[in-house]
Write a structure and sequence with these properties.
Layout (H helix, E strand, L loop, with lengths): L1 H17 L29 H4 L9 E4 L5 H12 L3 E6 L2 H9 L5 E5 L5 H13 L6 E4 L11 E2 L2 E2 H23 L4 E5 L25 H22 L6 E6 L13 H14 L3 H4 L1 H8 L10 E3 L2 E3 L8 H14 L1 H4 L1
Parallel strand pairs: 1-2, 1-4, 2-3, 4-7, 7-8, 8-9
Antiparallel strand pairs: 5-6, 9-10
Length: 336
């Protein structure tokens, strides 16, 4: 029985590594918590419904990117269930409309293709036309571990999709976030940010052309998510708005569609036992977006609804400031 358990756990470990899961099957180091940030009363397996239970979000507006599937769809569903008006984006208006129509509540579908900055600008214009403050801005959409190098305007596609498109969208909508009584930005990062630990942000290789690695490029984009949130929180310090990033944990969604075939099959087999459901994966997103305990909390990274100090590059304020500057230069035509 012991040997059989080792085989099963070993297979699950391969699955976790393949999908960038945060729960590696080994003895974990002590968890470091930032001082002054309240701990969550919820268990690690809490769902998005549980962490928002009893909340009335009537009159509040949320925007969720990538709302047509996975974590984004579940986040939109739960926030709408609690009374919020949710602007749900998809790569096409058809995808966004179908997702919005699939749930109960007040939703507004908007097209958003993050690799197309004209689309990002059009999305922001549509949202601004609603003339509503944005109480919750959830930056969730993304792509993962593209097996071959793909570029958008000379830049590596994962960096553009996961970071740069969201950077532009956030800046175009920031006035509406600040206009809310207590606007919250939630940036979905990943434990995969550690895959970029050695090289951090490759400022001289944002094209991805030098020694392309699918995992490293994905890790760089997820590190960029955490750094973006860190610098945004600094810039929001004199306002009532906040920004935090988070790791949803190992969740089986279509984000893994580019993973190797063996990993997808292994996920289908072992996923239910060792990975989170979208309902569980969306819990930290909804907790940061709506739970009263998070009012005024900003500039932190969360796992399982609790703050974690990762140290290293993800908390490097100088790197975060440089990323903001470089991102501003890369999107200057649209920010102007």
């Amino acid at each position: 029985m012991a040997n059989r358990r080792k085989i099963i756990l070993g297979s699950a470990g391969l699955l976790a590594i393949g999908f960038g899961a945060s729960r590696l099957l080994r003895e974990d180091p002590p968890i470091l918590r930032p001082a002054g940030v309240p701990l969550s009363p919820f268990p690690a397996e809490a769902t998005a419904e549980l962490v928002t239970e009893g909340l009335d979000l009537t009159g509040k507006t949320a925007l969720v990117t990538g709302a047509n599937s996975g974590l984004g769809l579940e986040t939109m569903r739960v926030l709408a269930m609690r009374g919020a008006t949710v602007i749900g984006t998809g790569r096409t208006l058809d995808k966004a409309s179908k997702a919005c129509a699939s749930i109960d509540g007040n939703t507004v579908p908007v097209a958003l293709e993050l690799t197309d900055f004209d689309s990002v600008t059009a999305c922001a214009e549509s949202v601004r036309a609603l003339n509503k403050p944005i109480d919750m801005l959830v930056l969730n959409a993304g792509v993962m571990a593209l097996p071959e190098l793909e570029q958008v305007n000379g830049l590596e596609k994962q960096f553009v999709t996961n970071h740069l498109g969201h950077f532009l969208l956030s800046n175009l909508l920031l006035d509406q976030v600040v206009a809310a009584p207590a606007g919250r930005v939630v940036v979905v990062s990943s434990s995969a940010l550690k895959w970029a630990d050695e090289t951090a942000i490759e400022w001289d290789n944002l094209s991805g052309e030098r020694d392309y690695s699918a995992n490293r490029a994905y890790g760089q984009s997820k590190l960029a998510n955490a750094l973006f949130s860190l610098e945004l929180s600094r810039r929001l310090a004199e306002t009532n708005a906040t920004s935090n990033s988070m790791n949803p944990g190992p969740v089986m969604t279509n984000l893994q569609r580019h993973a190797p075939g063996w990993a997808v099959k292994l996920g289908d087999w072992l996923g239910p036992a060792f990975m989170k459901t979208p309902a569980e994966g969306a819990s930290t997103i909804c907790y940061l977006a709506a739970n009263p305990l998070m009012e005024g909390v900003s500039g932190h990274y969360f796992i399982d609804c609790n703050p974690v100090s990762l140290g290293g590059n993800s908390e490097n304020s100088e790197m975060a400031a440089r990323l903001w500057q470089v991102s501003s230069e890369l999107t200057s035509e649209y920010l102007a």
